[in-house]
Amino acid sequence: MTFTHSKKLDHSKDFILPCRKDNLNTIKEFLPIDKPDFDGSFSTHQLLYGKTGNRIYLIGLGEEKHSAQIEKTFQKLAFETQKYWSKSIQVYAENLSESEVNKAVIGLEMGQYNIGEFKSKKEKNNETSITFASTKISNKILDEGQYTGETINRIKALVDAPPNIKTPEYLGNWAEDSSKFANYKCTVLKHKELKNQGFEAVLSVGKGSVNKPVVIINEYNGNSSTKIDIALVGKGITFDSGGLSIKPSTNLHYMKSDMGGAAVVLGVIELVAKLKLNINIVGIVCSAENAVDAESYRPGDVINSYSGKTIEIIDTDAEGRLVLADGLSYAVKKIQPEYLIDLATLTGSVVRTLGYEAAGMFTHNEEMASTMSKIGYNVHERVWQLPMFEEYKSDLHSDIADLRNFSGKPITGATNAAQFLESFTEEHKNWMHLDIAGVSFGSSPYAKMKSASGFGIQLITEFIKSKVMS
Predict the structure, then answer these.
(1) Which EC class does it fall in (predicted)?
(2) To the nearest whole percent, how much of the chain has pLDDT over 90?
(3) What does the pLDDT look like over 349-379, one tens digit per residue?
(4) Candidate list 72, 321, 382, 404, residue with the active-site label
């Protein structure tokens, strides 16, 4: 799919006609009939035919409250109708703001995602050229929307990929390939180097798998400063059996998605590099497969970590916080970023708390919390701040190690996990943890089974942009 810009709409050819709810007067001049059965309700569309037999797709943008989700209505239109499109189609964008055009492009690009990558017979998307007709927009807006949509599709493909393909090494190869065409630096630390540098928690989690762990370090330097503005750390568990604390078999096949946080980190670094933002960022992905084997780490073990702190293992299914602990310690000690954010599909507790509509946000920095919350509403990737009260920390107490990895209690699980991670941040003043377990992967109108949502790419990229501007 390619996107171009024109100042005029060709009425004789196919075009898409966006409209707010109950606001048909704004597009009346383009309608072939006076009263179509269409009111502009959000995520609706209707096909009309023009005088030359050209297709006119009316598309509903809904009310003002739907502004943050405009890409969804364009995604749905593309998904349901693009098989009928010719090689080119127009979008009348004179009534759209630059932000709305950006969202429209993202949605159209997201409509190209094909979840059936591993089927023997693949469906092919039409190669369509889409022209936005407006006197107000620039090619830069179109490019940014396309880069964003493409990146969302790429991380969705990563999350949806089967675990026999998507090993830790596969993530490392993905990052290396990405770094070459997006122009950033990628370093993949493998088993020997992880041992030499002291990534003991990552190694412990990966001991039971034939697919050995890796740590991926992606560096994008958008300016000449030596200071790193933002470090992102992602949980990259490519399959989570639960280890010896094995999970029930129901929905176990969905544990291929336990690297959703890593996917966001990989995608954001790629996108920021494509956008050439004036900022320096580092992405760290700690990736392992949590498997069951004679060499698997056990409940009751005491393991070491990059920080030097010892950890008593209560539950081997609380493995994500272990790999993140090493990633956070590495970021604090080696990179010393101004802002430090980790993302992970970490706990079922956050799903029970917030459901599937928001990520759990944990931080002591209210400025970061306010900024992230506002951005979340603007891009419809919402976050909700949960408490980190001092009283909860007693749940991390261990008699035989510096701390334990799981409280064993059926309450405050997401907070306990966040406070475990906090123990490895050296009290970094600008640290935030995002638990995306409920929003990274789930039910979708575009698949019969659960699949990746793409959550996090716009949220984190817009946060990064807010720091470029400040």
Answers:
(1) hydrolase
(2) 95
(3) 999 999 999 999 999 999 999 999 999 999 9
(4) 321
* Confidence category of residue 410, pLDDT binned at 50, 70, 90: confident
Is 317 assigned a ligand-binding role in the annotation? yes
Nearest to 128 by CA among 14, 9, 271, 7: 14
Contact at 8 Å (CB) between 176 and 275? no
121 and 158 co-located in one domain: no
399 labeled binding residue: no
Domain membership flag for residue 432: yes
Neighbours of 446 (CB within 10 A): 15
Confidence of residue 469 (pLDDT cuts 50, 70, 90): low
Task: Tell whether 173 and 121 lie within a shared domain.
Answer: no
Q: Is 240 annotated for ligand binding?
A: yes
The annotation status of 258 as a binding-site residue, yes or no, is yes
Give me the CATH number covering residue 27.
3.40.220.10
pLDDT tens digits for range 61-108: 999 999 999 999 999 999 999 999 989 999 999 999 999 999 999 999
Task: Say how many C-beta atoms besides its own lie within 10 A of residue 391's C-beta.
Answer: 8
- The answer to whether 55 is a known catalytic residue is no
- The answer to the question of whether 402 is labelled as a binding residue is no
Q: Are strands 339-344 and 403-404 parallel, antiparallel or unpaired?
A: unpaired
pTM of the model: 0.96
Domain membership flag for residue 143: no
- Provide the domain limits for residue 73: 2-137
121 is catalytic: no
CA distance 403 to 266: 30
Catalytic residue chosen out of the listed positions 247, 352, 393, 450: 247
